Fold:
Amino acid sequence: MVTLELTFLLLVVGLAVGILLALGQVYGGKGLVLLSSTYEQIFRSIPALVLLFLFFFGSSFVGLNISAFLSAVLALGFRSSAYQSQIFRGAIQSISQGQMIAARSLGMSKFQAIRHIILPQALRLSLPPWSNEYSSVVKDTSLAYAVGVIELVREGRYIIVRTFEPMIIYITIAVIYFILTYAGNRSLGYLEEKLKIPGFETKSRKE
Amino acid sequence: MVKRKMGLILAVVVFTAVLLGSSVISPAAEKKVYIVASDISWPPFEWKDEAGNYVGFDLDVMREIAKLQGYEIEIVDIAFDSIIPGVVAGKYDIAASGFTITAKREEVIDFSGPYYSSDQAVLIRKDSGLNIGTVFSEGHKLGAQTGTTGADWIKTNLVEKGVKVELKLYETYPLAVLDLINKNIDAVIQDEPASRASAAKEKKRIEITGIIVTGEEFGFLVKDGDPYGLLPKINEGMLKLRASGEWDKLIAKYFGG
Structure:
């Protein structure tokens, strides 16, 4: 249950921050590009476990007392946002610049063009790599036990300590993760099919 | 259509806020409740029973003292390695997790009076043909849990003295025991009560071949300087428990069998 909750929050945080980062990197001015690229580089370069410790223990040293759960959401969510930003950046850049120019010449503002023309296409294109990110986020949640979040693996350990049956428990945990990942990927695949733009592939090949 | 989409987005945002909110407010809001950190995977001192309750000697003592001394506690489970850093950082107010009182630890945190004394036990496989005299010789692989006195003992008394044994560290001691049973290591060094518990569970395959008398004492610990004045309350509580006979009952309950 905590694993599901954590996965959901990580994806939401990652999605929201990731899209903003991607937009910043593609359309931002010099400062914004530098800022979002630096953020993305930092969060992609630090191991997830180290990030967790930095957020959890580090927060106290700067006077914030955030719970284990929240620091896991922030650390792993920001990390995921850095990865997701690259998915969205790639998708945005795969949409030809002509569309932006056309939208602007029709009198749309840059924001309108992004909102109504670019993002609806880019987000659809992002779905396949995004389902990949989903799979890794589900499994990343298992690291949160290091700062005291009682998620699936930790629950399993309670039973192992009591019963000394590690193999059965670890196999059960593996099956649960498999189901979570498989169900998620299938749903995203279904969404992808539903939202497909007919003929988009041929259109995007060459203008 | 647009409205429905906005509704969906709103729902996601609200849901997210509620999930986050509940986790932010609960621990920090009231300071009457002291957070007790423990690595709940170390029977008989602390583990989670079938019903899902945190049980064990450390935790019962903590609960009894809190009751006697008139404060409330909340027990949280955290990996052993992270407990002292968490206490130092002010994340937890008390730690009760079978901590041996050492001078090194005392530098960064404060200990209560000792509440239990223990030695280190050496676990081996019954079919290994090894014993306490031969197990510490060259080429053998010895396992211990990271950050424990067992691991320290192997380091200072064998590795640093030039005995060519291999020290293998594990996240928890049941994993070390499992690796022993799987024949990947030759012995596990661990506090005696915990070793007795695992030897009893796996009595066909493993046994305690000997005890290393370290005479170490366990203490509860709090942040350096004891900012909430908890140590006097804990120490006094232990005295009261001993005086009332409750202490002996707990000892019998968890170490009797």
